[in-house]
């Protein structure tokens, strides 16, 4: 892994972002919340930034996720949530 990277989650996020065809994915946070990324155009990130910006697709609502709050990033299942885990809150 590149030692200049600030964020350990960056390689996984980059992998899912550039995947063809694009498939929605979920960013799970340490507090139990999860943010679903439904479209490639709705997320902005950089390997050295401390935040990820995700549009919810609801008007101009944007969520800011602190890099230290990211627990894992995984492909989303078919519905509006990942049924393999208990849900706290998914946006």
Layout of SSEs?
Elements (H helix, E strand, L loop, with lengths): L9 H9 L6 E5 L3 E5 L5 E2 L6 E5 L6 E5 L3 E6 L13 E2 L1
Parallel strand pairs: 2-7
Antiparallel strand pairs: 1-2, 1-6, 3-4, 4-5
How would you describe the overall organization of this protein?
The protein is mainly beta. It has a single domain (10-79), classed as SH3 type barrels (Roll). It is built from 1 helix and 7 strands. It has one helix at residues 10-18; strands spanning 25-29, 33-37, 43-44, 51-55, 62-66, 70-75, 89-90. The strands form 2 sheets. A 4-stranded mixed β-sheet has the order 6-1-2-7, with helices on one face. It has a 3-stranded antiparallel β-sheet with strand order 3-4-5, with no helix packed on it. A hairpin with a 6-residue loop joins strand 3 and strand 4 (51-55). The longest helix is centred in the first third of the chain and has 9 residues, at 10-18. It starts with 9 loop residues before the first helix and ends with a strand. The model is unreliable at 79-88 (pLDDT under 50).
């Amino acid at each position: 892994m590149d030692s200049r990277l600030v964020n350990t989650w960056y390689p996984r996020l980059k992998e899912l972002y550039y995947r063809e065809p694009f498939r929605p994915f979920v960013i799970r946070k340490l507090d139990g919340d999860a943010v679903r990324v439904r479209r490639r155009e709705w997320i902005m990130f950089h390997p050295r930034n401390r935040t990820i910006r995700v549009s919810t697709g609801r008007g101009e609502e944007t969520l800011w996720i602190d890099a230290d709050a990211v627990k894992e990033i995984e492909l989303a299942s078919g519905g509006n949530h990942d049924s393999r885990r208990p849900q706290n809150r998914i946006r």
